[in-house]
């Protein structure tokens, strides 16, 4: 049985990597400025140097693909952790308000430090490095508030968790909107685009900034993913195995908040990836979290790259924010899961 599961896992991972490659190929070759696959290969391998192709690939399209992939990986893994900790298949960083908390903190940073996300000279290392840190603080505050109100007799009440998450989400969303309205016209436009969930202005500095967060926290949650299997049992059974339940849950929660915050700091608030990716992963490879975690990460990456490609091309030359595209897909899926959970 174990051998069969491992074979299925590796087959699924191979197929997902292939799908990500196809989505990336579509993304990099299509747009306002179309290129053939040979143009892309020659540019990437430096066979024939062309300044136009260099600009389009290395400055515009490739950073977007990389950022979309990294954000999808982070949100997919965070969704697995949150659903495992809460034992609730509807848990998601966006629905629970963690996205909104991290986003509000980044908007506060933008408001006081006047970070112009669309300006050419925005790449101040100190400013960009501070954004994930502010996001982490905001996401942590949101998580503490949510889980404090959701506790009932020392245990998480799932109904309270969802309702509190919706309330916290609305509250932090209102705070973000209020602060953005106080900004200058240029900063407000930047903040509004960012809050909708957008990676159209992605660059290599953003990718390098969030990469350490994903590597360190991603490896940590993957290494601890076996605990999520135990968390599905009754608490007395877990304690009898010698596991410090609350301590481990808190560590995993903080790690997932860090992942979400790093993602939100570069892409704005993108919901539903953390909801959809774990469910699809479980349908593909079963319920063992050591398999679900990496599969969910790749599904998140593939979904976001594909969503960004759709947002870029469907209404060309105008663009639709990737967060809106994901919501169009995610809302029906959320309603489907809601109906299914009642059945």
Automatic annotation (TrEMBL):
<keyword id="KW-1003">Cell membrane</keyword>
<keyword id="KW-0813">Transport</keyword>
<feature type="transmembrane region" description="Helical">
    <location>
        <begin position="201"/>
        <end position="221"/>
    </location>
</feature>
<feature type="transmembrane region" description="Helical">
    <location>
        <begin position="291"/>
        <end position="311"/>
    </location>
</feature>
<feature type="transmembrane region" description="Helical">
    <location>
        <begin position="125"/>
        <end position="149"/>
    </location>
</feature>
<protein>
    <submittedName>
        <fullName>Iron ABC transporter permease</fullName>
    </submittedName>
</protein>
<dbReference type="Pfam" id="PF01032">
    <property type="entry name" value="FecCD"/>
</dbReference>
<keyword id="KW-1133">Transmembrane helix</keyword>
<feature type="transmembrane region" description="Helical">
    <location>
        <begin position="320"/>
        <end position="339"/>
    </location>
</feature>
<keyword id="KW-0472">Membrane</keyword>
<feature type="transmembrane region" description="Helical">
    <location>
        <begin position="252"/>
        <end position="279"/>
    </location>
</feature>
<dbReference type="InterPro" id="IPR000522">
    <property type="entry name" value="ABC_transptr_permease_BtuC"/>
</dbReference>
<feature type="transmembrane region" description="Helical">
    <location>
        <begin position="161"/>
        <end position="181"/>
    </location>
</feature>
<comment type="similarity">
    <text>Belongs to the binding-protein-dependent transport system permease family. FecCD subfamily.</text>
</comment>
<keyword id="KW-0812">Transmembrane</keyword>
<feature type="transmembrane region" description="Helical">
    <location>
        <begin position="7"/>
        <end position="28"/>
    </location>
</feature>
<feature type="transmembrane region" description="Helical">
    <location>
        <begin position="62"/>
        <end position="82"/>
    </location>
</feature>
<feature type="transmembrane region" description="Helical">
    <location>
        <begin position="94"/>
        <end position="113"/>
    </location>
</feature>
<dbReference type="InterPro" id="IPR037294">
    <property type="entry name" value="ABC_BtuC-like"/>
</dbReference>
């Amino acid at each position: 049985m174990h051998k069969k599961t491992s074979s299925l896992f590796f087959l699924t991972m191979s197929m997902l990597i292939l799908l990500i490659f196809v989505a990336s190929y579509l993304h990099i070759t299509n747009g306002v400025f179309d290129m053939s696959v040979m143009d892309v290969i020659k540019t990437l391998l430096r066979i024939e140097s062309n300044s136009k192709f260099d600009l389009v690939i290395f400055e515009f399209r490739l950073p977007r693909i990389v950022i979309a992939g990294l954000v999808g990986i982070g949100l997919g893994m965070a969704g697995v952790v949150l659903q495992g900790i809460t034992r609730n298949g509807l848990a998601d960083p966006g629905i629970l308000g963690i996205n909104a908390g991290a986003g509000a903190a980044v908007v506060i940073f933008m408001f006081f430090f006047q970070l112009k996300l669309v300006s050419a000279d925005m790449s101040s290392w100190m400013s960009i490095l501070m954004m994930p840190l502010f996001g982490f603080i905001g996401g942590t505050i949101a998580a503490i508030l949510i889980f404090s109100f959701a506790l009932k007799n020392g245990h998480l009440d799932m109904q309270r968790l969802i309702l509190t998450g919706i309330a916290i989400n609305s509250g932090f969303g209102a705070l973000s909107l209020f602060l953005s309205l106080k900004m200058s016209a240029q900063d407000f436009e930047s903040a509004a685009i960012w809050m909708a969930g957008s990676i159209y202005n992605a660059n290599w500095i953003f990718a390098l900034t969030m990469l350490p967060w994903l590597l360190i926290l991603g490896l940590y949650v993957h290494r601890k993913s076996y605990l999520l299997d135990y968390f599905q049992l009754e608490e007395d059974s877990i304690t009898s195995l010698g596991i410090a339940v609350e301590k481990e849950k808190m560590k995993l929660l903080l790690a997932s908040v860090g992942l979400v915050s790093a993602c939100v700091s570069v892409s704005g608030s993108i919901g539903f990836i953390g909801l959809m990716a774990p469910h699809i992963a479980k349908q593909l490879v079963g319920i063992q979290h050591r398999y679900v975690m990496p599969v969910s990460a790749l599904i998140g990456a593939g979904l976001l790259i594909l969503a960004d490609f759709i947002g870029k091309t469907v209404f060309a030359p105008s663009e639709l924010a990737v967060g809106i595209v994901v919501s169009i897909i995610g809302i029906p899926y959320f309603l489907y899961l809601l109906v299914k959970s009642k059945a």
